[in-house]
Design goal:
about 15% strand; single chain; 12 strands; two-stranded parallel ribbon; Rossmann fold; about 300 residues
Length: about 300
């Protein structure tokens, strides 16, 4: 394996995705002493000098650090989200270049795609329009990392790859009303409704919008496989290849959590992007990744983990 004797920096290594990447590297035989996963309290990657400290002696960087949230946070903190993500990726890649790092793995997002991209989203359609407005600042900040990586490859010969990752879920996700994405937000609402014996829950939007979800352990596996095997400039989708409406998702979570109350849709609230579903064939053909966790199983594990924490 390419990675076995490499020094690997995992930015955001204490976060939801980062912890799973570190665990997957360990499972694949990378010695613990070869993995560096600093916390933001130790090294703040908004500052170039901290990025320079982080990359010293590293062979591979997996850049999983980022600031993101649900629709509310994206609408209220768009400037902050854009600044933090742009500064982190721009400076950590530049520091990596100056240090002579062998490979840089940028973790991008499905939010980079145009709002009305044809379904399923294919990598070649990435530039055919502006992202969905509520998460535009986040999507564009990650898209800038793709442009930077391709430019650095072209000018400096730097091996930078870029993965377009769908919404993640799983144990260890953020379960708060402000930062949560749709799955943990729904689990939280349903749990509160059960505890307070509420006969209904209110859900944002019409329920007609669709999403694709990837279990966080599968995402970590895909990232490690790409780090090991993929070395081309073109971005690659990382997802499960499934699509589900928000209405069907809410009904499924209610079923798993045994909640029999009514779903009331607040159509004054935004749906976000109308549809999201990725063409995941390139990840399979280029580095052999296929998501292995069924959606119901993944949701059940996530809910079980949530129950142990609350």
């Amino acid at each position: 394996m390419y990675l076995l004797n490499k020094k690997i920096l995992v930015t955001g290594g204490g976060g939801f995705l980062g912890k799973n990447i570190v665990q997957k590297l360990l499972e694949n035989g990378v010695p613990e002493q070869n993995i560096f996963a600093p916390r933001s309290t130790e090294l703040n990657l908004i500052h170039l000098e901290d990025c320079q400290k982080a990359v010293v002696g590293q062979d591979v960087i997996i850049h999983a650090a980022g600031i993101t949230g649900g629709i509310t946070m994206n609408r209220e903190k768009g400037g902050e989200i854009f600044y933090h993500n742009t500064m982190m990726s721009t400076q950590i890649m530049e520091a990596a270049r100056l240090e002579g790092v062998e490979k840089f793995v940028g973790i991008g997002t499905v939010c980079e795609y145009p709002k009305f991209s044809p379904i399923p989203f294919r990598e070649e359609n990435l530039w055919n329009g502006y992202p969905e407005e509520t998460n535009g600042p986040y999507g564009i900040s990650k898209k800038m990392m793709l442009v930077q990586g391709q430019a650095y490859r072209s000018q400096y010969g730097m091996n930078v790859i870029h993965l377009l990752q769908v919404n993640l879920y799983g144990p260890g996700d953020h379960f708060d009303s402000y930062r949560s994405h749709v799955i943990p937000a729904l689990i939280l609402k349903i749990d509160n409704a059960k505890k307070e014996h509420q006969s209904f829950i209110e859900v944002w939007g019409t329920g007609k919008a669709s999403r694709e979800f990837l279990y966080v352990e599968d995402a970590a596996e895909g990232i490690v496989l790409a780090t090991e095997r993929y070395n081309k400039p073109e971005p690659v989708n990382l997802g499960s290849g499934m699509e589900i409406t928000i209405r069907a998702l809410a009904e499924l979570i209610c079923d798993i959590m045994d909640y029999r109350g009514e779903l009331r849709w607040d159509t004054t609230k935004p749906d976000g992007q109308p549809r999201r579903a990725l063409d995941v064939s390139k990840a399979m053909s280029e580095f052999g990744f296929t998501a292995s966790t069924s959606f119901r199983d993944g949701l059940t594990k996530t809910i079980q983990w949530y129950d142990t924490q609350h």
